[in-house]
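Marked as duplicate of an earlier ticket. Keeping the data here for the record.
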Amino acid sequence: MTLAVTPQAQVDRSAGVTAPAGFRAAGVIAGIKPSGKPDLTVVVNDGPDQAAAGVFTTNKVKAAPVLWSQQVLTAGKLKAVVLNSGGANACTGPEGFQDTHATAEELAAVLQVGAAEIGVCSTGLIGERLPMEKLIPGITQCVDALGASAEHGLAAATAVMTTDNVPKQAALTHPDGWHIGGFAKGAGMCAPNMATMLSVITTDAIVAQPQLDHALRNAVEHTFNRLDVDGGTSTNDTVLLLSSGASGVTVPADEFEAALTALAADLVKQLQADAEGVTKHVSITVKGAATAAEAVAAAKVVAEDNLCKTAFFASDPNWGRIAMAIGNAPTAFDPALLDITLNGAPIMVAGGKGVDRSEADLSGLEIDVQIDLHAGDASATVLTTDLSHAYVEENSAYSS
């Protein structure tokens, strides 16, 4: 599937982290998951540049790999990233951090680089130590499987999946001869205050590290941070951006940020489409807010409200629930001016009943919620999903 981004470039979902020159990747079965599914990924930057940036969870309870990757990224470069599924390595104490350190040291030794050049990510059940007797040998297996083909990129995207049903990847080729690609995983525990679960993005553009970091933070704020499946900010959320510079093309900062944002937005749409138990893709736009921050906050209140989400699941245009949720938002507005439109039907107008609710058809997959506060000029959109029987069933049985 190919989506138009600009007249100059397109996002292509058949490619991922290996689309940019200078990158190899692999995903293998190391035996971390009892299911026997792929569970270990390595992405290697062969340079010549090794600039890198990262954005991490704001949760106070941070997994060991988050603490490790934050620490090593203070140098602004990475040679490689190793990611495991099947265990979060969160709330595992000093021993868990030692496991992360040992993971980085093992990959560094195989690649003949320093451990401080290795990023580490983990995803899965919180509170359990990783089976290091399986993970460590799996690293050599993964390095032996490295390659630069599209198949290698897809294998890398597949091995990070937990409750995801499908791998999520995308790439963009710019006509000036540079590329950007990436993968993401995440289906639940998604209300990122930085990013959604795990994502690795690569580029062969020449971008100075400070600009790389700035572009990533801005792109995350307008893409990953605007997906809110269930209000849960994970202990492991990480987005890493690596630049090889192998294209030889120096890219202006604003042009790179636009491409990065387009790529991240596509990954986020894929995350929304594969959310746990999803039957509705919901877009909530708040306009007429006093500030952009208030617009985002108001949209998130609706996105996280269980009564709104169950109404979406039932295709029920119960606008009273949306009005209730907005009234609880940390947002200044006059309730007598509030407008709510559902899939084009102005169902609440000037604080009261608008057209008959039967005119709002929510029976399809897509639900568009437009809320006008009439309190300013700022606006923001947040993506969410419904709250279905399948979501409850999947999450009630996750640890068992």
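See parent ticket for discussion. Confidence is low (pLDDT under 50) at residues 1-8, 189-196.
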